[in-house]
Design goal:
By secondary structure, this protein is α/β, with parallel strands linked by helices. The protein is 40% helix and 16% strand. The strands form five sheets. Strands 1-10-13-16-5-17 form a six-stranded mixed β-sheet. Strands 4-7-8-12-11 form a five-stranded mixed β-sheet. It has a two-stranded antiparallel ribbon with strand order 2-3. Strand 7 and strand 8 (207-210) form a beta hairpin. Helix 2 packs across helix 4, helix 14 (352-366) packs across helix 15 (372-385) and helix 14 (352-366) packs parallel to helix 16 (394-408).
Length: 433
């Protein structure tokens, strides 16, 4: 599984974001939505592993307000599991007692999760529903801004914009190299001005599911929200891309047999964002198995995850799902599933004008002088000599060939007949007819 590309994430940092509704700082253990015994156990394990010197350091490790950490500390001290070792600037210094150390070791054998306190499943469900992007209010200007880096027909932009507004899944299909993946991974740009709260972890049935993933969730580190619950991270809407590496197990809770806590599956990490199934049909899980797994989530907006022991847990399925494939849709899915794909967009070849525009942008990005006459000759060679349709991927692929050859010969890359001919000969398969 991969996240949105780093350059794109950095590019979106200056976009003005909107407030998704802040989770307020809990004033007590009860406000935190967790049992005091659970927080006490987490505190003992965290003290054993991280050895904070004082209560403020402990509160920071747990991502809890000082007053809540103090409430837990007082209980553990009364049970003679933690002890007061001194005071620094009116802040208690703490340490484990012998009983506390023994108890911490016992707890770590059951679950090794330490650090930020999780949020309750109820609070997580409520927040995800509140932040749902299913009723997005997207307009033409938003689509033009989000896809300004691509050369697309206005008709396709309108289709994509309508699909984002509906919140229904999008099915992109067409031949290889037509731009399906870059279109899919550009869709998060449409929602770039929105931000959501992602918890570090979620507690379910006294179990912990680690959710926040810095490779997926782009934290808005430059913003501070007054009185926000520190167990939640303010992020831009996530974008999760899974390709041929996807297996059926990746769609379920991942229980580490050593650490004994769960990691959230790909679709849970994508909640309130975009989930892209790239190269659909080429995964290590059969297409029909994947489609059957998601028929209910796509219809009802809920997913069912299984804990060790077989207990089912209901979690939100609140995301825009995009399938991209170069296989024939009718060979991948039956009519019932395709009906649920309310937006099906064919992404085919490009026109001569689009090819010229793409080539011009690639040359600009790569520092090459754009030669329209040379590109006209290239178009003729692709269509009439190679008998291939024009693809959106051709300009960048061929320019990369030219630049690589120039580096090999230790000279400046140049768009001329010789370099173009060499690139064509090594890029396209020979016509054996």
């Amino acid at each position: 599984m991969s996240a949105l590309s780093v350059p794109l994430r950095n590019e979106l940092r200056d976009v003005i974001v909107s407030d998704p509704g802040t989770r307020r700082t809990p004033q007590s253990v009860a406000d935190a939505g967790l049992r005091k015994s659970f927080l006490a156990d987490l505190t003992l394990k965290t003290v054993y592993i991280s050895a904070p010197h004082n209560l403020r350091e402990l509160a920071a490790l747990l991502h809890l307000p000082y007053r809540v950490a103090d409430e837990v500390f007082r209980q553990l001290r009364s049970e003679q599991l933690l002890e007061l070792t001194g005071m620094v600037d009116n802040t208690p210094c703490l340490g484990l007692t012998m009983r506390g150390r023994e108890r911490a070791l016992q707890l770590l054998e059951l679950c090794q999760y330490t650090g930020p306190a999780p949020v309750s499943l109820e609070d997580y469900v409520e927040q995800v529903r509140r932040q749902s992007g299913r009723q997005a209010d997207i307009h033409c200007a938003d689509m033009q801004r989000a896809f300004a880096h691509l050369v697309l027909e206005e008709k396709m932009l309108d289709q994509l914009g309508t699909a984002v507004n509906s919140g229904a899944p999008i099915f992109l299909y067409g031949p290889p190299g037509s731009g399906k993946t870059v279109i899919a991974t550009s869709l998060p740009r449409v929602l770039a001005g929105e931000q959501v709260w992602i918890p570090f972890a979620v507690q379910v049935e006294n179990q912990v599911i680690a959710l926040f993933d810095p490779h997926v969730h782009d934290a808005v580190s430059s913003m501070t929200v007054e009185d926000a619950d520190p167990r939640w991270v303010l992020c831009r809407r996530p974008a999760v891309v899974v390709g041929g590496e996807l297996t059926a197990d990746m769609l379920e809770l991942q229980l580490n047999p050593l650490s004994r806590f769960y990691h959230a599956p790909a679709q849970m990490k994508a909640n309130n964002g975009v989930l892209i199934i790239d190269d659909f049909g080429r995964q290590r899980v059969r297409p029909e198995e994947l489609l059957n797994r998601w028929i209910v989530p796509l219809d009802r907006g809920v997913d069912f995850l299984t804990l060790a022991g077989g207990k089912k847990v209901e979690v939100p399925f609140e995301m825009l799902v995009v399938f991209a494939t170069n296989l024939e849709p009718s060979e991948l899915a039956d009519a019932a599933f395709l009906r649920r794909m309310q937006t099906k967009i064919y992404v085919g070849g490009v026109s001569h004008k689009q090819f010229q525009q793409i080539f011009s942008r690639v040359c600009r990005d790569c520092g090459l002088r754009f030669e329209p006459t040379m590109v006209d000759q290239l178009i003729d060679a692709i269509e009439n000599e190679q008998h291939e349709p024009l693809r959106a991927c051709h300009p960048r692929d061929l320019v990369n060939q030219i630049r690589s050859a120039a580096r090999y010969r230790q000279r400046e890359p140049k768009l001329d007949a010789s370099s173009m001919l060499t690139a064509i000969e090594t890029y396209f398969l020979p016509d054996r007819q």
